[in-house]
Amino acid sequence: MIKVFGVTKKYPARLAVDDVSFEVARGEIVGFLGPNGAGKTTTMRMLTGYLPMTSGRIEVAGYDICEDPQEVRRRIGYLPESCPLYPEMRVDEYLRFRAELKGVRLSARKAKINEVKEQCGLTDVGSRIIGQLSKGYRQRVGLADSLVHDPDLLILDEPTVGLDPYQIRQVRELIQQLAKRHTILLSTHILPEVEAICERILIINEGKIVASDTEANLHRRLHACAMIEMEIQAGKVVAMAAINTMEGLDVRTATELDDGWLRLEIEADSSDMRVELFNLAVTEGWPLRELSEQEYSLEDTFVQITRNPGAMQ
Amino acid sequence: MSTFLSLFKKEVRTCFLSPIAFVVMFFFWILTGGNFILLLYQMANGDSLTMATQWMFGGPLICFSLPVVIPLITMRLFAEERKLGTLEALLTTPVKVPELVLAKFFGALVFYSVLWLPVFAYAYFQSGMNPSATLAFPDVGALRAGAVGVMLVGALYIAVGLLMSSLTSNQIVAAIAGFAILFGSFLAGAYLAYTAPSASARTVGQFFSSSAHMLDFSRGVVDSRIVVLYLSFTAWFLFVSVKAVEAKRT
Fold it and tell me: How far does the CA of residue A17 sit from the closest CA of chain B (Å)?
């Protein structure tokens, strides 16, 4: 659906996007992550044809963005970061105007507008003036606008920014519904959102793509060794010595807790050494109350990748 | 074509919905109304009736007000879209930039024509006040030519204001830049045409003074050279605006 070949964008004072290449297949939901100023919005604006690139090539739905910008734009539904709308227009008016611009046929226009209004929960506010709507409703109007011409590809730049938690959940559910029919490229700062929705994650940092994979693979590649947490009742020195002698296990920290238990953090070579540790506790006769493998959150992974660009190699 | 029409309709609607439109309309109508009253006084004092259309279209109140009024109409055209970010939303639809520029231009031109409607109403009322049967008033030919002049000058001024608006996201900057260019060229043209010491400078000035052109038009003289001059300058400014919108995307 999207093919990006070596795209670079230079601003007079800085390099915003540096030789970026990636692909998004039809039907995928891709989360586009990166710290502020990493080049997310610039990349998205180039994908929509709004910003010209300095060098490189972009293909959307088989059309080159420089040669057939009109064809590309017909197939893209784009929600810009700031969700720009005309405050003096009414919701219905605005959606009709946008549908006209996007070439939705007159015969289908009314039905299509009603459909997106229903999808986005706007049926009750059709005659309200946009400037008087709350931020959440405005965001929905922007989303409805990006859907009104039934695009193959949806590009959403931070669709949930500025919404309250309830509205975020609603937008997330909406995006999940949309994923059945559209290819979606979504940028956001809210990582649980990406964990909940996206099949694949693209991470951009300082203008370069530093990671592109599924969430599980990212964790696996980044954390080759697993971290196991264990709480037992045993002498610190004895327990550390016993565990360290085992193949592939290495005690990182050992803390004596106030209630007399010993908490150990153990690095394991392969992912699952918990059974061996359990057997050890049984043979040594240590009471055991916790034995778990640490779960990495996307947040950990994200921070690690963007702070330390070499992490993925 | 249908995209152009929806853009155009939206432009006209926004022109008439903006509060600044009503302020501009209020002051321009007071001005043209006052201008008409002054004309009536002059005629009551025995001035020639043949001066009437020239006063109505090319009087000093009108000539001095257009460089202020038109930038106030045009300042929001692109600056507001840039400020709101809606330009990004527009240019990521299949809309072409020339369509957008033309829609905004003609939208402003419609609003500008509405500003002039009362003046034509005055001319009609005046025909009923004509005391002497020997002079036909209003002179329909002069009125028509005056209307042509009003539209030509207005179109050029709007194109200049549109270009200024396409260069910035600040409406005030767009208005002041438009005012500076229009008023500056108006003064320079008037100076060259009427008070420059050398005769050749005055001839050149005649081609650049919009007040001189307005007086000619409202006398009923439609000089094709001047018509071509206005149309080509207008087209050039619109072309530059298209390029400015295409180039300046941030």
Answer: 15
